[in-house]
Automatic annotation (TrEMBL):
Residues 28-152 form the AB hydrolase-1 domain. Keywords: Hydrolase. PANTHER family: EPOXIDE HYDROLASE. Pfam families: Abhydrolase_1 (PF00561). This is AB hydrolase-1 domain-containing protein. One of its GO terms (molecular function) is hydrolase activity. Belongs to the AB hydrolase superfamily. Epoxide hydrolase family.
Length: 231
């Protein structure tokens, strides 16, 4: 694929884990932070475009994603851990004595991490550009997941992800491959809801998506017969 040409990949040891990164170019460093359920691949076009303009574009897979280690313990995924990974990455790839501050670009969950990066270590950030996730100041009166449940209900995807093993079992029913395809091709302009037995807005036995090649050749599969033409 032309969009992948010249992008280099390597694994670096940071903050007690092995992290996969993709990079291209020479010059001031731009750190790209992906969201959910994405990888470094989210930024492939930006990596090529900005490296051609004289920047060094660097995009890691965050901990738990893609080619980066995924610790077993849920407690190992706090904002402190993830920001710590990124600071360790910068210390390795752009040491403060050579490049004390870098540009940061974040999207979705990656944008939230980017806000924390700026709060915790402003000494390492030259400028921030975030997409889709505004800054929300911490308010000790409200817990994030409980607040989301009140605002969006129990079927909201983040709320559904809280019980270990539950959503994994439901994804297994339709296959992880299909679950990822459903997530990446979700086109309903509303919050993502995953009701039990009706994931992504249609029954689990609904033949909504085929193979990747089918998606490429026929991007719009049309109405689902099982759903009687529903979305």
């Amino acid at each position: 694929m032309k969009s992948m040409e010249g992008i280099q990949h390597k694994t670096v040891s940071v903050n007690g884990i092995n992290m996969h990164i993709a990079e291209k170019g020479e010059g001031p460093l731009i750190l790209f932070i992906h969201g959910f359920p994405d990888l470094w691949y989210t930024w492939r076009h930006q990596i090529n475009g900005l490296s051609a303009l004289g920047y060094r574009a660097l995009a890691p897979d965050l901990r738990g994603y893609g080619g980066t280690d995924a610790p077993d313990c849920v407690a190992d995924y706090t904002c402190f851990h993830v920001v710590g990974d990124l600071i360790a990455l910068l210390d390795t790839e752009a040491p403060p004595d050579k490049e004390d501050k870098v540009f940061v670009v974040g999207h979705d969950w990656g944008a939230i991490i980017a806000w924390f990066l700026c709060l915790f270590r402003p000494d390492r950030v030259k400028a921030l550009f975030n997409l889709s996730a505004p800054f929300i100041p911490c308010d000790p009166r409200f817990k994030p997941v409980e607040t989301l449940e009140v605002l969006l209900g129990k079927d909201y995807y983040i709320v559904r992800f809280q019980e270990p093993g539950e959503i994994e079992a439901e994804f297994a029913e339709i296959s992880l491959r299909r679950a990822v395809l459903e997530l990446l091709s979700y086109r309903i302009p509303d919050p993502l809801y995953l009701p039990k037995g009706n994931l992504f807005g249609h029954p689990l036995d609904c033949p909504r998506l085929g193979t990747i090649s089918t998606m490429v050749e026929k991007p719009d599969p049309g109405p689902c017969k099982v759903c009687n033409g529903g979305p």
